[in-house]
Design goal:
Elements lengths: L11 E7 L5 H10 L4 E3 H8 L5 H10 L17 H8 L3 H25 L5 E5 L14 E6 L2 H12 L3 H9 L4 H4 L5 E4 L7 H11 L1
Parallel strand pairs: 1-3, 1-4, 2-3, 4-5
Helix pairs in contact: 1-9, 2-5, 6-7
Length: 208
């Protein structure tokens, strides 16, 4: 597979990605511990669906009380992310609608944060859907947090308490790891049976 054009500015921009439950957050935390600013797409996605936000209003208008968290009033209700996930991961058209709503708003957050960090020598952009959203152009290099597909499924089931069917639906909503590997510049092996967090830390330090 051919690689899309990358960021060519003076700043080093590491795009950190991977599949769901492969260990991106762990690697992001280790990079942050090295003193690097880490911009988290999931954090921005939560912001754009925060109570009172235009994103939350659009979601509530589309799905109503189905995604309204219990105990929240009519003023600025909170989105029940689990309920929203159940909808979008079982219907491709609904998932695409949500992505078309959220992705441009997340991109705006990245653009603003990068503007604020223009003097930082290196910035990490932690983006689970980096390839799916076509955001390679934000990054000078891409690191993929990798593991076995069977291990990924097991981790997701244990982490989120999902059934096998629900976990597979979430994994299948993203590009497969096998599709992402040849598009990445660095593969970070996060097979827990082979590597401890200390080993990951040493590997990251060598790549920096």
């Amino acid at each position: 597979m051919s690689r899309s054009p990358r960021w060519c500015g003076a700043q080093r921009r590491i795009g950190l990605t991977g599949g769901i439950a492969t260990g991106k957050s762990t690697v992001g935390r280790l990079l942050e511990a090295e003193g690097l600013p880490v911009l988290d797409a999931d954090h921005y996605a939560r912001e754009v669906l925060a109570p009172g936000s235009p994103g939350a209003a659009a979601v509530l208008q589309r799905y109503g009380d189905t995604v309204r968290a219990e105990g929240t009033g009519p003023g600025w209700p909170t989105i029940d992310r689990a309920a929203l996930g159940s909808i979008v991961f079982s219907d491709d058209s609904e998932r695409r609608w949500l992505e078309e709503l959220v992705h441009p708003l997340v991109r705006q957050r990245f653009d603003q944060a990068l503007t604020d960090l223009t003097t930082a020598p290196t910035v990490v952009l932690m983006i689970p859907l980096l390839f799916e959203a076509g955001l390679e152009g934000l990054c000078s290099e891409i690191w993929l947090v990798d593991c076995d597909e069977a291990q990924q499924l097991e981790r997701l089931i244990q982490r989120d308490g999902l059934s096998v069917v629900a976990a597979e639906a979430r994994i299948n909503a993203q590009w497969s790891l096998s599709k992402k590997r040849p598009l990445s510049d660095v593969l970070i092996d996060n097979r827990a049976s082979l590597h401890s967090e200390q080993h990951l830390k040493k590997g990251i330090q060598m790549m920096l």
